[in-house]
Sequence to fold (205 residues):
Amino acid sequence: MRYEGIVYRPPSEARSLILQLTIGCARNECTFCNMYKDKKFRIRNLDEVVEDMIMAKKYYMFDIERVFLADGDALIVKTRDLLYIIDKIHEILPTVNRITAYGAPKDVLAKTPEELETLQKAGLDMVYMGAESGSDKVLKAVKKNATQAEIIAAGQKQTVANFYNFFGLFLCFGNLRYKRNTAVLADVLLVCINRPFHINFLVCE
Fold:
């Protein structure tokens, strides 16, 4: 496999084939994340991504059942190109039964409901969306480039499109400079309104 730089994936994707559809993160401004600081964001040539699928099929001696589309913000790719890659995954790797990707709230909001529904029906099962916090003050402090309202709207759009809705939340962010209880209550509000299928709670050292 051909990987550029360090490749990151959610813990639950440990047994997945990692396909780099994008390099780096389109925003890359969050103060709490240093994963893609050494990469300049770009979308890879689709033919190269397809070549990686063919290489993986030849290299691995077992059936590939799960694919994770890396790096950060894979959902930012144009819908027609995402559909092409999803179709190629099913064509070249017919045993795949789950496809996932990272996506920022604004990536989700940039897609129309019809686009999201089409992607879900094509085989994109879940978008890992880092909500990080339900507090607008905290979100602004960590330069998340999203508001509570936008995160809620993005989560609801995923639910309507039948995605397995995933939220990532940092429980420690309320300690940054604001009352912890206030931040936690904002997190609870975010979860109660969206009722995500899966929540990943993260803590800071």
The chain is about 40% helix and 20% strand. The longest strand covers residues 124-132. The radius of gyration is 17 Å.
